[in-house]
Amino acid sequence: MVHVPSPPDLVVRPLQRFHWREWTTLGLFWLASLIVVAMLVWVVRVRTPADGAQSLDLALRQNADLQQRVAVLERADQVTRTANAELQRQIAQKQEEIAGLRADLAFYSRLTDAGAAREGLAVQALKVEAVAATPRVYGFDVTLTQNLKPGQVASGKVKLSVSGIKGDRLVTLPWTEVAQNQDANGLAFSFKYFQQIKGTLLLPEGFQPNGVRIDADGGAQMGKAEREFAWSQVSAQGKL
Questions:
Q1: Which of 76, 124, 199, 236 might form a disulfide with 143, Cβ 3.0–4.6 angstroms?
Q2: What residues have CB less than 8 Å from 167, skipping those under 6 apart?
Q3: Going along the chain, which residue ranges are E strands?
Q4: Do 218 and 154 form a contact (C-beta atoms < 8 A)?
Q5: 14-43: per-residue pLDDT in tens?
Q6: What residues pair up with 207 in beta bridges, in sequence order?
Q7: Lowest mean pLDDT among 21-35, 102-116, 127-141
Q8: Which pTM was predicted?
């Protein structure tokens, strides 16, 4: 006879329930995870743009500093170029003065040289300059010389006449027409070796000068001297 085992006994166990402390712990972990996620989101959204703004601000400050340095260098370069131009102008002016002094020295040497050719009264030079803020008025400087009779005084009168174009005609203005408030007989001179005689010329409106004639009369002892100059050669660009 076959033995059949009896079925196992049914065991009924009571349902295990979580204690309230365990639920509280799980809740705290869940809340902490939410806080961590929120902090990560805040770091991504807030901290990163702040770092970018700081980098931009730093770049702007560096750019402003570089621009300031460039401006300083440009000003320094401008000052250097201005100083160099002024130095070149002064050098050219000094060279012109030296050339003038050398010419004057040669001129005076000829006058006082015992072996130089003897000349009577002569017109050595003429310079004409426009008077500032006075239209049509020109100042002139005539240099007269003589070494025919060293030590003897040459005296007399000198006159200027100006030729040019007025309208469509070539005219010559005598001394009496261009000498404003000056001796109609001419400007007086008196010297042993040389003298510079200064005066003024008043030209009529619409008159274009192109030449100047100088007539000096030293009387019977020194004789007469005359010389013509082109206006472009004796007229200076500057103003008196």
A1: 124
A2: 206
A3: 122-130, 137-145, 154-166, 169-173, 187-191, 194-202, 207-217, 224-230, 235-239
A4: yes
A5: 545 555 566 677 667 667 677 766 666 666
A6: 166
A7: 102-116
A8: 0.54
Q: Which residue has the tokens 């712990």?
A: 25
Q: Single out the residue of 109, 121, 106, 103 nearest to residue 192, CA to CA.
A: 121
Distance of CA 223 to the CA centre of its chain: 51
Task: Quote the DSSP letter at residue 46.
Answer: I
Which residue type sits at 142? V
Q: What secondary structure does DSSP assign to 69-93, as a single string? A: HHHHHHHHHHHHHHHHHHHHHHHHH
Greater confidence (71 vs 186) lies with 186
pLDDT band at 75 (very low <50, low <70, confident <90, very high): confident
At position 226, the amino acid (one-letter code) is E
CA-angle at 73, arms to 71 and 77, nearest 5°? 115
Q: Are 137 and 180 in contact (CB under 8 A)?
A: yes
